Amino acid sequence: MEVETMLMRTDPFRELDRLTQQVLGTNGTLARPSVMPMDAWRDGETFHVEFDLPGVDPDSIDVDVERNVVTVKAERAARASDAELIAAERPRGVFSRQLILGDNLDTQHITASYDSGVLSLAVPVAEQAKPRKISITSNGEDRRSIDA
């Protein structure tokens, strides 16, 4: 199975609008890059997703799963200092991202870890989505197996 079947893309036009807003911003000026960039891939029987969250306190990260939707929320706290701000290019505050996973993934057994500013999710492929052998019988005797 390809990665596209693991991560559902429901509306290509919404995705295009989102990318346009990221590049141009809502008022036509150049915008900052996404605050939660991610990579997703399949390796064998596991689907992996990594989110870049540098400078985020691990206690502020929340991962929720409802049906086949995974929501990741994180917070990069505002500076507590009254110092004069010279540049502010790193987004602060609460941000979130949702992934719609395909039915072929086992959302009951997702694992998550956070290391060096990267949140990693591992989602196993569901048993019913894995290839299996089916025995063919003839006159009550097993003759051969085929892949299903």
User: How would you describe the oligomerization state of the chains in this entry?
Assistant: single chain
The largest pleated sheet is described as: 4 strands, antiparallel
Q: How many alpha or pi helices?
A: 2
Taken from the alpha-carbon principal axes, the silhouette is elongated
Tell me the radius of gyration. Answer: 21 Å
CATH fold category name: Immunoglobulin-like
Domain module tally: 1
Low-confidence stretches: 27-33
Average per-residue pLDDT, rounded, comes to 79
Helix content: 10-25%
Strand content: 35-45%
Order of helices and strands: HHEEEEEEEEE
Give the distance, in angstroms, between the N- and C-terminal Cα atoms: 14 Å
Q: Give the helix/strand class.
A: mainly beta
Widest sheet: strand ordering: 1-2-7-6
CATH secondary-structure class: Mainly Beta
The count of β-strands is 9
The CATH architecture term is: Sandwich
Please explain how this structure is put together.
With 148 residues, the chain is mainly beta. The chain has one domain (3-126): Immunoglobulin-like, CATH 2.60.40. It is 11% helix and 40% strand. The strands form 3 sheets. Strands 1-2-7-6 form a 4-stranded antiparallel sheet, with no helix packed on it. Strands 3-4-5 form a 3-stranded antiparallel sheet, with no helix packed on it. A hairpin with a 2-residue loop joins strand 1 (38-43) and strand 2. The protein is elongated, with a radius of gyration of 21 Å. Residues 27-33 have low confidence and may be disordered.
